[in-house]
Input
Amino acid sequence: MSNISEKAEVSPKAVIGNNVSIGPFSVIESSVNIGSNTEIHSSVVIHSGTTLASGVRIFHSAVLGAEPQDLKFSGEVTTLEIGEKTVVREFATISRGTIARGKTIIGRNCYIMNYVHIPHDSVIGNNVILSNAINMGGHVTVDDWAIIGGMVGIHQFVHIGAHSFIAFGSRVTQDVPPYILAGGSQSGYKGLNIVGLKRRGFTDEQIRNIKNAYSIIFGSEYNISDAVKAVKDSTQMTEEVKTIISFIEQSERGIIRK
Output
């Protein structure tokens, strides 16, 4: 049985699962799907086209699925999807997609802190942590297990790799490869995210292989294309190294440098 405040405004055309709580002054529009065991605090606004999987928690005054902040948006029907057990804290804003991708996607078990803005057509993976007051442009991709520090600005179309860590107050205008620490007013490579990798069960050998690949990629001897060739020629092509090479070869904005 759900617990919906009599002071909440819930459209009869919204689909509400079992054991859902909705606090006072929250607004749930039509064509919203809310999974079972979801918790929505007071003064939350969830716009049409939003789907919350089971176990999601939305805190006070968050706004989900609002119209994209994109001058090209012309009212097309688009969506926002949020995965299981993701937490969205106070005053965070997440826009739905545009015709470009059609949807904004947030994975499962993410933690999205106060005042984070996730714009249209972005894709956030699983187990991602977005710290307070992160602002990003549209079409950003953040892969699984990435952690981004507070007050980071992320340029549109940037791709942030899995298991990476971006320091507080950084400005990210190019792609951030997986497994690394990045930071600075113009974000650069600061080493490996060794603490994060060890916490997630990476072995010493896996970390050593990653380190060897990046010592070539970020060494002064090579440009990026030559560095990728050198890694392929001289480094054991483990799954982690293949992930690094694939990320770099598919990068559209180019990767950060030292």
Notes: The longest strand covers residues 188-192.
